[in-house]
Design a protein that fits this description.
The complex is a heterodimer of chains A (534) and B (502). Chain A has one domain (11-262, 279-331, 402-516): Amidase signature (AS) enzymes. Chain A has 534 residues and is of the alpha/beta class. Chain A has helices spanning 3-8, 11-15, 19-28, 33-46, 58-73, 116-123, 159-164, 181-188, 205-210, 245-255, 299-314, 327-345, 364-375, 378-391, 397-419, 437-440, 445-452, 457-462, 491-505, 518-528, and strands at residues 53-56, 85-89, 127-132, 194-199, 214-217, 237-242, 285-289, 318-322, 424-428, 466-473, 479-485. In chain A, strands 1-3-2-4-6-5-10-11-9-7-8 form an eleven-stranded mixed sheet, sandwiched between helices. Chain A contains 20 helices and eleven strands. In chain A, helix 10 packs antiparallel against helix 19. In chain A, a hairpin with a 5-residue loop joins strand 10 and strand 11. Chain A starts with a helix and ends in a 6-residue tail after the last helix. By secondary structure, chain B is α+β, with helices and mostly antiparallel strands. Chain B has three domains: 9-284, no CATH class; 323-436, no CATH class; 444-501, Arc Repressor Mutant, subunit A. Chain B has helices at 58-70, 174-191, 230-249, 312-318, 323-334, 338-346, 350-360, 365-383, 394-405, 411-423, 429-435, 444-457, 459-466, 473-484, 490-501, and strands at residues 9-19, 74-75, 78-79, 82-85, 95-98, 105-116, 122-137, 141-145, 150-154, 161-171, 203-212, 222-225, 258-262, 267-270, 283-284, 291-294, 310-311. A nine-stranded mixed sheet of chain B has the order 2-6-7-10-1-11-12-13-14. In chain B, helix 6 (338-346) crosses helix 7. The chains are: A alpha/beta (534), B alpha+beta (502). The A-B interface holds A 92-93, 101, 106, 111-113, 115, 225-230, 232-234, 260-264, 340-341, 343-344, 346-350, 352-354, 364-365, 368, 388, 391-393, 396, 400 and B 44, 47-56, 83, 85, 87, 89, 92-95, 151, 153, 279-283, 286-289. Chain A: Its EC number is 6.3.5.7.
């Protein structure tokens, strides 16, 4: 349709810009919102093999872009996001747009309302291009366990990765991490300038790190959860994925704040219009937690961790070893609390009011049982079973109460560190770079989650803000990110430090293999479309 | 039968669910209305759509605090919400949000009275401890269509705010429980926190019943449900106590079970017990922060808007006159019998009616009481009307009483006029009296003539009276009354007749 404009300006050049840059291009009339939207949709189509999207909202997106153009043309944009294409993880409710949680249970479910964070973006004129893939109900760390199939890591389609791998390129691809793998892939593959994920134990930061994008998990309660289909209410936060820290800050500023529909939200601290351009890193004290030298930490990641710590130190920041002694118990407690809330939250899926309903109707109980058996995958069912076990009257003290007590200790660990004068804590985000899909599925979901979430979930237990910043490529050519953890409601300060770090690490931009060769891309689209939605 | 086991006594505790009178539900903005079209009052949250969150309705919290204050409870400054899990078709989320661990109010007391003795005029006053008042969600309603073997669900009620009041097992029979619930109803209605109509389900009472010998541990209890009036509550409890005694007497065992009351037979029947060994898997509700209630504006933390919080002193100031205080006041102010004060207060609107009449009537309150309790209530009860539906206004009744007091009509005529007023409320008292020619004959001449006519036409009776049997004078008086259709003052007539026959 818009072949001429694509020919005039290389798509990747425009799509690879940051929000700040493309927003300026929109205002300057160098590109229109409809052109930009069309480019993103084309890019989504071109990269269908990534399986990043469950739903593409082309029609409504073009309408929204048209309205943005009307505003931009009259010089009255709504704000920095007016006309900017974005995508949303398919566990956020979107009005009149199917929201599946990548589960048979919610296939065909069309919510009658928008999640608050989605509404806020739409109110700013941002253009929703699609709903992204995930692990079923966000339970997973690979984006491999959803009913629509696994998401492929865009970086495993770069020349660098391809040159090093020996196997068949069709099977030798890497996972995105998860559970917000579709959102991470959408931002990494330049299909969206911004994507919403959700982060319960690392679900935004883990794929953000493995896909080489900036992924922010804000302070618990800073962003509304209204309309986010819950995993663990006491830990869930909407996550922000962008290609720059500055963009993440722009989006945070728009999304943060109290929502009367979510009683756990808090008033946002006053925030300046943008991150400071000049900022003295010598005022900052960076903590390096010794417990994060975990078994299984890859050499590549360890060396990046050391490199960035040294970088801070050389720039004059104070870098000091700190201790978070209860970290080792965190993942076990996380699993107990997670399963308990999952068991509870999933109770509503009984096939009566909405969602899948089994044809078995010999009795109400039989209908419940088969509906739930048919609707949920093994991972969800196992967590429900475990959660209900932990919540039994006879087990409650031993599991739930214990886990909550340890949770307080973990939160206390962080408080002590910050009380000692530390501003941010620097840690790896993951143990390794992205695993090959064929390797990843050797272990079950439970084991994988325990491994993958080890550095991320303590932050959720404590409700703190954390951001992963892409740092370098591994020897396999896959991204490595490092995590910065901040104090409660100090998200802005956290991003300020992350911004400094981003400017100093020189993370490369992505070049998808064969991007220059239109025909090869098309071939690969044709070949891989069979995996979509299967 | 009971005489066979004189030493056994019943032990009764109550669990009362009171639907909070508020315009919207406990955690959503949906309206609350009885008899609305099915599923017309259902928000996204009420239907448990995924991604929706509860938002606490302050009005419901205030209702619970007011109720707690009226029942002398300790109001917890911080209370918590929990999830109670069970699958039921009319419980869409698969759990109920309730207050299991720390409820909003605890340790209260309810004072109630009932009447004993042959004429049921001896007041017995007792009290029962209120263990706690907790806020929780109501469920929807399931309608079972057995013919087509399907279940229809109406979620209008789902999520309506309830106060669950737990009364300790300190009552011993149906009458006590009924009196306690009646008093609770009056308190809730006075507070305006619950309409408390049992038949409409605004007040649901489950009774925990057991029997034991005093001094021994409590017996195994049963829970009796499906009780839809105070009268049935008393019946159900007494039946259950009797039943358990008989079971034990015949060396049987009382089972810990749920039983339903069958109002037709007056029996309790074991219910299919779906909750037999249910483990509710309680867990803290993660979407609601702790509920804070503050003493006064002065005790608010900085930055908290007083308009947005629940303040105890503000609510205390709003407490209306409670039923027990009303009764004491009636007895003291009007010198009425205690039992009359119960009748006036326990009947919705009757006390106000009475006080309105007293204000305009030029009669002693004691006389007014008779009119209100005998004539008014007699008529209302026979036609099953509420006080507010009375065709005779307090003003009209006062006017009538004033005519009697002024000697314009006799009291027997007045009763006749009262019935006419009931039938024709559009007419004034004066109109009715005039139309039916019921004014009292106060003219001496006229009275003399009437009496003379009667005396003249009854020579035999006059003879007897003169012979010393003065009782027969009453017969003559009756004749005068009949002749004048009761429009004479008996005292005057007697005096005239006595003179004539002497």
């Amino acid at each position: 349709m818009s072949a001429s404009s694509t020919a005039l300006r290389p798509a990747a050049a425009m799509l690879g810009l940051s929000i700040r840059e493309v927003s300026r291009a929109l205002r300057d009339g160098r590109v229109s919102a409809t052109e930009l939207c069309r480019k993103c949709i084309n890019q989504i189509q071109r990269t269908r093999y990534l399986n990043a999207f469950i739903t593409i909202t082309e029609e409504t997106a073009m309408e929204q872009a048209q309205r943005a153009d009307n505003r931009l043309r009259t010089g009255k944009p709504l704000g920095p996001l007016d006309g900017i294409p974005f995508s949303v993880k398919d566990n956020f409710c979107t009005e009149n747009i199917e929201t599946t949680c990548a589960s048979s249970m919610l296939k065909g479910y069309v919510p009658p309302f928008n999640a608050t964070v989605v509404q806020k973006l739409l109110d700013q004129g941002a253009v929703l291009v699609g709903k992204t893939n995930l692990d079923e109900f966000a339970m997973g760390a690979g984006s491999t366990d959803g009913v629509f199939g696994p998401v492929h890591n865009p970086w495993s389609y770069t020349s660098l990765y391809r040159e090093q791998c020996t196997g068949d390129p069709d099977s030798d691809w890497a996972i995105t991490g998860g559970s917000s793998g579709g959102s991470a892939a959408a931002v990494a593959s330049l299909s969206s300038f911004l994507a919403l994920g959700s982060d319960t134990g690392g679900s935004t930061r883990n794929p953000g790190s493995l896909c080489g994008v900036v992924a922010l998990k804000p302070t618990y309660g800073l962003l509304s959860r209204h309309g986010l289909i819950p995993l663990v209410n006491s830990m869930d936060v909407p996550g922000i994925m962008t290609r720059s820290v500055h963009d993440a800050a722009t989006v945070l500023r728009i999304l943060q704040g109290r929502d009367e529909r979510d009683s756990t939200t808090v008033e946002a601290p006053s925030t300046p219009p943008s991150l400071p351009e000049h900022f003295d890193i010598r005022d900052i004290c960076v903590g390096i937690p010794k417990e994060y030298h975990a078994p299984g930490l890859s050499k590549d990641i360890l060396s990046q961790w050391s490199r960035v710590a040294a970088m801070f130190e050389q720039a004059g920041a104070r870098v000091q070893e700190v201790s978070l002694p209860h970290t080792q118990h965190s993942i076990v407690c996380y699993h107990v609390l997670c399963c308990c809330e999952v068991a509870s939250n999933m109770a509503r899926f009984d096939g009566l009011e909405y969602g899948h309903r089994s044809k078995v109707d010999s009795s109400t109980d039989a209908m419940y049982a088969t509906t739930r058996h048919e609707g949920f995958n093994n991972v969800v069912r196992r967590r429900i079973l475990s959660g209900n076990y932990f919540l039994l009257k006879s087990n409650y003290e031993r599991y739930f109460v214990k886990a909550q007590q340890v949770r307080r200790l973990i939160a206390e660990d962080f408080k002590n560190v910050f009380r000692s004068g530390i501003d941010v804590v620097l840690t790896p985000t993951t143990l390794n770079d992205a695993a090959r899909y064929s390797d990843f599925i050797q272990e079950d979901n439970r084991t994988r989650s325990a491994q993958e979430d080890v550095f991320t979930q303590p932050v959720n237990m404590a409700g703190l803000p954390a951001v992963t910043v892409p740092t370098a490529l591994s020897h396999r050519g896959l991204p490595i990110g490092l995590q910065l953890i901040g104090q409660t409601l100090q998200d802005w300060k956290l991003l300020t430090v992350a911004h400094w770090m981003e400017q100093n690490v020189n993370f490369p931009t992505i070049h998808l293999h064969g991007e220059s060769n239109e025909s090869e891309l098309n071939r690969s689209v044709r070949e891989r479309t069979h995996t979509i939605g299967s | 039968m009971a005489t066979g086991l004189p030493q056994m006594v019943g032990v009764v505790g109550l669990e009362v669910h009171a639907q909070i009178q508020s315009t919207s539900k406990l955690f959503s903005g949906s309206h609350v209305r009885f008899l609305a079209p099915p599923n017309s009052l259902v928000s996204h949250f009420d239907a448990s759509l995924p991604g929706t969150l509860p938002v606490l309705n302050r009005r419901c919290v205030e209702a619970a605090v007011l109720t707690g204050l009226a029942l002398n409870c300790t109001i917890n400054r911080k209370s918590l919400f929990d999830r109670k899990h069970y699958f039921y078709a009319d419980m869409p989320a698969g759990y109920q949000i309730t207050q299991q661990r720390v409820p909003i109010a605890v340790n209260g007391i309810l004072v109630y009275s009932y009447f004993e003795g042959h004429r049921r005029n001896q007041v017995v006053t007792k009290s029962v401890k209120i263990k706690q008042i907790q806020l929780e969600q109501d469920s929807g309603k399931s309608l079972h269509d057995d013919e087509q073997s399907q279940t229809l669900i109406d979620l209008n009620r789902a999520g309506v705010g309830l106060m669950e009041l737990v009364m300790e097992p300190e009552m011993c029979c149906g009458e006590e429980a009924a009196a306690a619930v009646r008093e609770l109803q009056l308190i809730l209605q006075a507070l305006g926190t619950c309409q408390a109509n049992m038949a409409e389900g605004q007040l649901r009472v489950d009774a925990n019943v057991s029997v034991h010998r005093p001094g021994e541990p409590l017996g195994v209890r049963t829970e009796v449900k499906n009780i839809n009036s105070v009268r049935h509550l008393a019946k159900a409890i007494d039946y259950e106590i009797q039943r358990q005694m008989e079971v034990l007497q015949s060396a049987g065992k009382v089972l810990n079970e749920t039983r339903g009351f069958d109002s037709k037979s007056g029996n309790t029947i074991p219910m299919r017990d779906k909750e037999g060994l249910q483990d509710y898997r309680f867990m803290p509700e993660p979407n609601l922060p702790p509920l804070f209630v503050y003493e006064s504006e002065a005790s608010l933390p900085a930055g908290v808007d007083p308009a947005q919080v629940v303040l105890i002193d503000r609510l205390s100031a709003q407490l209306p006159e409670l039923p027990s205080v009303k009764r004491t006041r009636l007895v003291e102010k009007y010198g009425m019998l205690q039992e009359h004060s119960f009748t006036l207060v326990n009947e919705d609107g009757l006390m106000d009616y009475f006080e309105n009449v007293v204000q305009t009537a030029k009669a002693e309150p004691r006389k007014v009481i008779g009119w209100v309790i005998k004539e008014l209530m007699g008529n209302l009860n026979s036609q099953n009307l509420k006080v507010s539906q009375s065709p005779i206004s307090p003003c009209a009744l006062a006017e009538l009483i004033n005519l009697v007091e002024a000697g314009h009509i006799s009291s027997s005529t007045a009763k006749q006029v009262f019935q006419e007023m009931w039938k024709a409320p559009e007419k004034t008292v004066g109109q009715i009296v005039k139309e039916q020619d019921l004014w009292m004959i106060n003219d001496k001449e006229e009275l003399q003539q009437i009496c003379k006519r009667i005396v003249d036409s009854h020579p035999e009776e006059v003879q007897i009276i003169r012979g010393g049997n003065t009782k027969v004078l009453n017969k003559l008086m009756g004749k005068v009354q009949r002749e004048t259709k009761g429009r004479t003052d008996p005292v005057q007539v007697r005096a005239i007749l006595e003179k004539m026959v002497s």
